[in-house]
C-alpha cells in the first residue's frame, strides 16, 4: 500500500521539502477509504430523511468536502510545526473548556458548545487532538530509561487528568473516557511498563464507588439501564431496546435500502446521529455491517502502517494516537447501539450527522497524513532540526 | 542514537499488542452482530412487526330483533358524537368555550374532556358529547370553520322503537362490566361495545353480536396511524325473529293497564309465545342512554317491580287453577271416578282442623265436572287427601309446574310444588296431613309462574304433549339461525280420558251457566274458550274474621289483596292457544282475570283469522314446518 518513494529515500537527511514534493506525497488511497466511509453516511442520511438530501445528507457532503480540504492543508503543514505548537494548542483547549463551563450554550442537557456565530465550537473535540499532540511531544524526546522513571510520568498524567476532569464536569462521559483511553494508548506506545497500567487500572476500579458519587443522575441511570435494559423497556431503556430490535430485524441482508421500518416509523431515536449505525444495520443487515466494519478496519490498518513507517517518535505517536481515537469512536458507538456498552454520546465517525466531529476527525487524519508525508524527516527534541 | 533502535523495537512490539487488543474488540463486535442479526433475528423481526403493526377491531352491526311478522323491535341507530383532537385545536379551552355556545356542555363534560386530553396523546380524538340530535350536528357542521379540532363521528347505539312494549322479553344492552368478561371475545375490549344484559339480548347475545373485523394499521413510534395494511370485514350479527306479535302484545299491555300483572299467550302445539306482557314495564332505551340516579331509584324500589318479568320471574300461588292437575292425578291414580260425588257443606274437617270452601253455604253434592265448574274446594280437599300430595306434585311437574319450563329467557324461576321429601329437607319438618288439603287447592307452599300456568293449560289442551315454550322463532346458535324443526314433544304420560274430563270441566266453567267464568265467556262461533278461575289468598283469614265476615278486597291494603288468576285455551273445539293471566293483588279470578283473558283471547283469534283469510299464513311459522318437516 505504501509505496516507498525512491526520490525521498535518496534524500534521507534533507530537512526541508518543497510544496510540490509534499503534494506528490499525498496518500490518495487513504482519502479514498475516508470517502467510502463518508459515502455510507451520505446514503444513510438520505434514507433517514425518507429519500431526501435535505436536511442532512447535503450538509454532510458539504462538510466532508470542507473537511477533506482542511485535512490536506493540515497534511502539508510541516509536522514540526504541529509539534512546536502542541503545548499552545493544549493551553488554548484548556481555556476553551473552562470557557464553556463559564458561559456555554445549553444543549442536550450538557454544556458543550461555544457559539462563534458561524460554527458551534466544541472545545472537547479540539482537546482530543491537542492531547495527542501534547503527549506525543512529551514522549518524543524520552528515552526508554526516561519512561521507566515514575517521576517522569507524573507531568503527562496531570496533563491528561486536568482536561478529563473538565470534560467530565460538562458532563460528557463519552469524551472523557475517550481522552483517557487514547492517552493511555500513547503512554503504552511510549513504553510505560504494563504493571504500571495494571496498578492504575486497579486504582481506577477501586475509585469507582467514589466516582459514582460525581456522576449525574442521568448518567447513573444510563449505566443501570445498560446493566439491565429490560427493567424499563418503554422508559429510559427504550433507546437500546428499539436499537436492538432494529438491528436484529435487519437479519443477514437487511430490509433493503430505505425500507427500515424501525427508523422510518421513528421507533429509533437520534437515527441521524448517535444511532445511525442501527438504521444502517436495519437496512443492510449483517453483510452491510461487516462491510462498514471492514472499511473502518482498513482505515485503522492505514494508521498503523503509517505509524510503523514513520521515523520520528512524534509522528509515530501522533499517527497511532489519532488512529486509536478513531478506533475508539467507532468501537464505542457500534458497541453502544448493540447494547455492549452503556449509552454515551459518541457519534459514529464520518457517518453520524454533525459538523464539529467531522471536521476534528479529518483534522486528525490530516495529522496522520502529515506524519506520512514527513515520515522520513528527522525531528529534534524540541521540534527543530535533529540535534 | 543507540536508544532510538531500542525505542523502535519497543514501539513495534507495543503496536502489535495494541493491534491485537483492537482485533479482539472487533471480534467482539462481529460476534455481537452475528448474535443479533442471525441467531436472534427471528425474535427481533417479530418484535419489529409488533412495533409497526397495530390491529384495530371493527365493530360489527348488532343483529336486529323483529317480531313474528317482521316489525322491528330492536334496531341500531346512528349515534352522533362530537369529538375534539387537541393537537388540531390552538387552545382547548377556547374550542370548548366556542362549542358550548352551540350545544349544551355541562361542567362535568368539560372536566372529563380536560382530564382525558391530558392522559391521551394529542392526536387521539376525545369524545365531548354523545347522542347529539340532528339539529345539534347541523349547528356544529355550520360552525366548523370556527371550531378547529372539532369533528363529528357516527357510532352505533341500540334503539328500541316500541319503548315499553316487550321490554322484558327484549332486555337491554349496556357497557361491559368487569363481571361480564368471560367469553374471551376480543370485541369486549372495545370502549364503545355493548352487550346484552337481559332478555333475548342476553340469551342470544353471542349470535346478535356477530364477529368483529380487523384492520391492520401501520403505526409509528407514537402510535399515529400511517396507513392501513389489511382489512378483514367482520360478520354482522344474526337477525333474530321472535314469536311475539307486537300488535297483540300492545293490546294485552293496554288491557292490563295500571295493574301489576302478567299475561302469557302461547301456541299449544309449537310452543310459540305470542304474547308475554308484564306490567308495569320500562323503557330499555333509558339503559342505553344511561339512567339518572332518580330514574334508577324509581325503577328499583317501585313495589310493582317494573324491571321484573312477572311472567317468568313472578311466582304466585296458583289457587284454583291448580285443580285440574289434582283432578288428573286422582283420576290417574284411580281414587275417584268422574261420577262419584262429594258433599260440600261449605267446609270439611280433618282431625280438629276446619277447612273452608270459598262458597260459604257449600256446593251441595258435586261430581268431578261440577266441582271444576263451581271450583268446589271441599271436593278437591277430599280427592287430594285420597291421592296424597306427592302424587299430585309428580303430575304437576309433568305439566310444567314447579320446574323450569326451559323457555329461552334468562332469570326464569322454577316456583315450587311441595313434596314430603322437599319439606323434610328444606324445612326439616314432617308433612302434615292437612297440608295435602291446603296445597290441593293450590295454596300453602305452591308457587307457580304465569308462564308455567300457560304451559300447564297448553299441555292439558294439546292432549298431554310436553310442549316447551320459546320466544325465538328460529333455532339460534352462536353464529347462525335455522328454522325450528317440527315439534315432537314427549308425552305427559296421562290418559286421554283424564284430559278429556278435565277439559269438559273447563268448558263448563266458561260456557255453562253457573260456571265461575260464565260471565267472561266468548260468544263468537268457533272462538269459545274453556278456562279456570283462580283466586290466591295472600293473607291468613283468622277464625274471628270468619265469624264477623271475611273482609272484601276493596277494604284491604293493596299488598294484602288476593291475586286474581285465570287460565284458558281456545278455540274450545279445536284448541290452538293457551293463556294465563295473573293480576297481582287484583282481587277475584272470575271478576278481574277472566275478562282480561277473554278480551285478549278474542283478539288473538280474530287476528289469526284475519291472517288466514288474507293468505298471510305462509309467513307463519307453522307453514315453515310443513315445508321443512
UniProtKB/TrEMBL annotation, chain A:
GO CC terms in record: cell division site; plasma membrane
Membrane topology value: Multi-pass membrane protein
Residue ranges of the TM segments: 26-49, 61-79, 86-106, 151-167, 173-190, 284-305, 317-344, 350-373
The keyword Cell membrane appears for this protein: yes
Keywords: Cell cycle, Cell division, Cell inner membrane, Cell membrane, Cell shape, Cell wall biogenesis/degradation, Glycosyltransferase, Membrane, Peptidoglycan synthesis, Transferase, Transmembrane, Transmembrane helix
Compartment(s) of residence: Cell inner membrane; Membrane
Catalytic activity: [GlcNAc-(1->4)-Mur2Ac(oyl-L-Ala-gamma-D-Glu-L-Lys-D-Ala-D-Ala)](n)-di-trans,octa-cis-undecaprenyl diphosphate + beta-D-GlcNAc-(1->4)-Mur2Ac(oyl-L-Ala-gamma-D-Glu-L-Lys-D-Ala-D-Ala)-di-trans,octa-cis-undecaprenyl diphosphate = [GlcNAc-(1->4)-Mur2Ac(oyl-L-Ala-gamma-D-Glu-L-Lys-D-Ala-D-Ala)](n+1)-di-trans,octa-cis-undecaprenyl diphosphate + di-trans,octa-cis-undecaprenyl diphosphate + H(+)
EC number: 2.4.99.28
Pfam family, one: FTSW_RODA_SPOVE
Leader peptide range in chain numbering: none
NCBIfam families reported for this sequence: rodA_shape
Similarity annotation: Belongs to the SEDS family. MrdB/RodA subfamily.
Functional summary from the UniProt entry: Peptidoglycan polymerase that is essential for cell wall elongation.
Protein name: Peptidoglycan glycosyltransferase MrdB
Taxonomic source organism: Magnetospirillum gryphiswaldense
Organism lineage string: Bacteria, Pseudomonadati, Pseudomonadota, Alphaproteobacteria, Rhodospirillales
Name of encoding gene: mrdB
